[in-house]
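Students often ask why inverse folding is considered easier than folding. One informal answer: many sequences map to the same fold, so there is more than one right answer. In these notes we will look at a single instance of the problem. The structure comes first.
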């Protein structure tokens, strides 16, 4: 456990960051999963779900939750599935 004020603050900050990052990754995974299912099932809303998933992926990159190349790989795989 943290023993001085700066370490306590750093611990509080890391807990907040971890919570925020986990929520963002959970939302990203859910969006990608829904897009994949729609694309594979030839659903009518597949294109909209793919676009929203790509948007969420891009937001995760800009927030530092996901690395750029990982995001690029996710987007590329979604695109090749829908092609």
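Output (designed amino acids):
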């Amino acid at each position: 456990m943290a023993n001085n004020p700066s370490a306590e603050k750093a611990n509080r900050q890391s807990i907040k960051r971890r919570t925020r990052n986990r929520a963002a990754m959970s939302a990203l995974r859910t969006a990608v999963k829904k897009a994949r299912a729609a694309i594979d099932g030839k659903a009518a809303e597949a294109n909209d779900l793919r676009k929203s998933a790509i948007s969420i992926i891009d937001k995760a990159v800009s927030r530092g939750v996901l690395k750029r190349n990982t995001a690029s790989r996710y987007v590329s795989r979604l695109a090749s599935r829908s092609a």
